[in-house]
Amino acid sequence: MEKQDKRTNIIAAAEKLFSEMGYEGTSTRQIAKEAGANMSMISYYFGSKEGVFLEIMNERIKGFNAQLVIINEDSISPHQKLMRVIEEYTTRILTNISFHKMMHRELSLAQRPEMYCKLKDAISANLIVIEKIINEGIAAGTFRSIDVRMLIATIMGTITSVATTPSKVTEGSLLDITIPKDREILTKRLIVHLKDLVTTYLTPQK
Q1: Contact 24, 70 (CB under 8 A)
Q2: What does pLDDT average to over the chain?
Q3: Residues of CATH 1.10.357.10 domain(s) within the chain?
Q4: For domain 1-47, is the CATH number 3.40.250.10?
Q5: Which of 25, 51, 101, 184 could form a Cys-Cys staple with 47, CB 3.0–4.6 A?
Q6: To 5 degrees, how large is the angle CA 86–CA 190–CA 197?
Q7: For the segment 71-111, what is each residue's pLDDT rounded down to a tens digit?
Q8: How far is 31 from 17, CA to CA, in rounded Å?
Q9: How far is Cα 92 from Cα 23, in angstroms, rounded to an integer?
Q10: Contact criterion met (CB below 8 Å) for 23 and 53
């Protein structure tokens, strides 16, 4: 149990440092110090700093993909499925903004081919599931015919915008996304907005 706790601590510490200082600006020594572990433990569990990074990416991406699969296989309408995707994706991103920043940094820089390819493949797999849900609704006549990929980009882009530059929606208010209770308010606000936006956009016009 103690070993598992150390491994978990290393992952949590590395994710925090990577998000604050970037991959290049973080050393294994800093990760070990932040985690209260020694460098040999990092080598034992992950092999290297890159190994820690890949493990973080894999864990987070697999978790969301598993959620999508469960939603897609549920016996509910396409509209209900899409609403749940919005809820799950928004909540997941806003409760773990540091990982989201890490992921987008890797996608924009593409300096580490293995990481870049893994991320691209995982994102593509998730897009396919969401696309399938929307196309199912279009085929059933529940949704009107639209540019599905553009809609997905709108949903994900809006969530990313709020997560990475929250001042766009908090300016002039006392809300601070780094404070848990404020982040919860912003998360609910964003979910309501996206659900209204998507429902209005997809509803067939008479």
Answers
A1: no
A2: 88
A3: 57-202
A4: no
A5: 51
A6: 70
A7: 999 999 999 999 999 999 999 899 888 777 777 777 777 67
A8: 7
A9: 22
A10: yes
* Residue environment code for 70-104, b if the CB has 16+ CB neighbours within 10 A, otherwise e: ebbeeeeebbebbbbbbbbbbbbbbebbebbbbbe
Structure tokens at 7: 């491994």
List helix spans (H) across 95-146: 97-109, 113-140
The HSE-up count of residue 151 (CA atoms within 13 Å, CB side) is 23
Do the Cβ atoms of 99 and 122 come closer than 8 Å? no
The top-level CATH class assigned to 57-202 is mainly alpha
Q: What backbone phi and psi angles, to 5 degrees, belong to 112?
A: -120, 95
* Structure-token pair, residue 166: 């929250």
Type of residue found at 8: T
Q: What is the rounded average pLDDT of the residues 141-168?
A: 94
pLDDT grade, residue 188 (50/70/90)? Answer: very high
* CB atoms near residue 194 (< 10 Å): 22
Could you give the percent of the chain with pLDDT greater than 90?
54
What is the CA angle 206-155-130, rounded to 5?
85
pTM of the model: 0.80
